[in-house]
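Q: Here's a chain of 119 amino acids. Please give me its 3D structure as tokens.
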Amino acid sequence: QVRMEESGGGLVQAGDSLRLSCAASQRTFSSYLMGWFRQAPGKERELVAAIRWNSGTTYYADSVKERFTISRDNAKVTVYLQMNSLKPEDTAVYFCAAASLPKGAYDYWGQGTQVTVSS
């Protein structure tokens, strides 16, 4: 069973930055796709950013392009989401998840961390 644990959320003001971390219990994610999702109250969960562990290829939702950066640390088996120029509409619970390839389904999830951006 793979365990994922997010950290780094909090309350910030618009324009501030936060870095979320996701530490995983598995020793390697070489054949995985790692994603950051978010869910705001009353809205569906959406994929914010993703990274293929092996190649480092990234994907970003249009709403966060040029503001958010996803990265991973092989030694620490940790995925990061650097969030800059935060907006009130970025307020949500943020989840990290892992999907084994080639299946591609996100089977492993963290418990989530709250990010609140005040105007």
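Q: Can you summarize the key feature?
A: The mean pLDDT is 95.
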